[in-house]
Each structure stands twice: as structure tokens, then as C-alpha cells.
Write a structure and sequence with these properties.
This is UBC core domain-containing protein. The protein has helices at 4-18, 103-115, 125-133, 135-151, and strands at residues 24-30, 33-42, 53-59, 70-73. α3 (125-133) packs across α4 (135-151). Helices cover 35% and strands 18% of the residues. It has one domain (4-151): Roll (Ubiquitin Conjugating Enzyme), CATH 3.10.110.10.
Length: 153
Amino acid sequence: MASSAQLRLMSDLRTIINEPPEGCSASPLSDDNLMVWSATIFGPDETPWEGGVFSLRLTFSERYPEKPPRVRFTSEIFHPNVYHDGTLCMDIIQDAWSPCHNVSTILTSVQSLLTDPNAASPANPDAAHMYQHDIQAYNKRVRRSARHSIESL
């Protein structure tokens, strides 16, 4: 019998299949484990992230949706709110988590965070400093990261 977390994840999967969020995709990593998902976010158009294809891993616990998943980029990424190991620092998967969020809302929030970082709460102080004090150098670094994301596919 499926747990409540598994039932919710099956519902999230149906939502993603039937109403895919623009510029994002996700599915369980394997057919026999609903608790670990692979996701892809495409860099938003008309931003330094444009053309990039970024991979993530979402790891859910049996307490989902009461507790948020762990979300980590598996692609190399330079961003003020992403730790060096790829783990995200983002309100909706931490302090502002609510069971009303699902995989689609998480991914669209991550995509939005790419272009609108929270430099006041940095996970990567170097990226935050560059974003705040030398936006041209930051954008150049992001474009390089976007190009690299395609080359490593």
C-alpha cells in the first residue's frame, strides 16, 4: 500500500505530465522509487541564463508534503543562493514551506530564483558579492555557466 507521501508524489507527477510548467520538467529517477526525482530547468529567455539546461535532484522524505524535499543542482551553477555542493538556499523549501507547494511550484520558483537572486541571504558569498558589485562580470560568469551546462549534456 502506498504511503501518503507516495500518493502525493503520484499526484505531483500527474500534474507535471498533464500541465507541465514552462521551461521545467521532472520525473522520478526510477520507476520503482518515487522518493528521488530528476528535474531539468531551462534558462529563462532574455536573461544571462538563456540557453542553459540545468539538472537538479529532488529527494523527498516520507513526511512530504508536510516537509519540503531536499533540492540540489547536479549541474555546475554559479548563483548567490546555491551552495558549492549544488544545494539550494530558497525560502519555499526552507522557512516558508507549505504543503500547498508541489514539484511544479518548486521548479518554477527555482527558475524564478535564477533571474532574481536573494543576495541578502547568500549561500555563495562570492556570487552574491559579484551580483551586487559587478553585475557585468556576474552576467558573464552566468553565461559561461549556461554554455557549460549544454556542453556537459
